[in-house]
Amino acid sequence: MSREPSERLKAVVDERDQWSCVRCGVSLYATGGSRHHRQLRSQQPNPKLLNRPSNLILLCGSGTTGCHGWVHAHPAESYEQGWLVHGWDDPTLIPVRYRIGNRFYTLLLDDEGDKEES
Asked: Which UniProt keywords are present, listed alphabetically (predicted)?
């Protein structure tokens, strides 16, 4: 099984996150972005558990730039905000701080590609 998300899963995550960075809200149509594993690849060796909608969010930049780089450079705050999830936690139970427009929301993600306020 591939360690990369399927095209279908990528589409689910992109649509759920409205093609925008969940941390800063910037549209990823004009800015480069990436799908971030909240539970890091090194913490979850099972691709079935690694690549699921609750474990993926959109962030601007790459693993070293933009919000994606910021999340990796600031793990303590990133765990507090749900942008990172410990290997022993279930991503469906850890809320994520989302910026949508000018507002911030704390949302739970499920494995169907939906989100709801926690």
From this structure: Endonuclease, Hydrolase, Nuclease
Query: Cβ(106)–Cβ(100) under 8 Å?
Result: no
pLDDT of residue 118: 84
Q: Which H or E element spans position 57?
A: strand 56-60
Q: How is the chain split into domains, by residue range?
A: 7-117
> Do the Cβ atoms of 54 and 109 come closer than 8 Å?
yes
Return the half-sphere exposure (C-beta side, CA atoms, 13 A cut-off) of residue 112: 3
pTM (global) more than 0.90: yes
59 with 33: CB under 8 angstroms? Answer: yes
User: E strands within 1-118?
Assistant: 33-37, 56-60, 96-100, 103-109, 115-117
